[in-house]
Amino acid sequence: MRVFLGEDARWPAGVFRTQERAESWIRAGKLAGMLTEHPLDTGVYAWAIEQGHFRPRAAHQQTPSFVGRFTTAYQEHFHHIEGDPDRSARIKDLVTGSRDAATHRFHHRLPGHDEVGGLLL
After folding, report:
1. Cβ–Cβ under 8 Å, residues 69 and 120
2. Which residues pair with 37 in a beta bridge?
3. Pairing label, strands 33-37, 77-80
4. pLDDT less than 50: residues of the chain
5. I need a labelling partner for 6 at 20 to 30 A (CA). Which of 27, 30, 36, 104 fits?
6. Prediction pTM value
7. 62: three-class secondary structure by DSSP
């Protein structure tokens, strides 16, 4: 499932079964924001722990407030500007051996990302 969060939005503007449908809708509206793949039938926090992408290191990282706001850049996601993912340098964060440390550091300096790779909503 893909979820589109428009620039400066607090709530999702669209939810799609396929990347193709999502990108078609984003292009048609010339939208700016982020399209993120989400796991089904589980929360992102549990998914990230199960996948080995996150491990709580402090008590506050296990609170309902933290869990309810948790996101991670390990989810496949695309930044769009005026409906075009290529205009925003199409940052695709798939966890692969080909992603280098410099790309990872650059991506997590982008607006909307916190120091542990989470997306700030």
Report:
1. no
2. 2
3. antiparallel
4. 89-112, 115-116, 119-121
5. 104
6. 0.68
7. helix
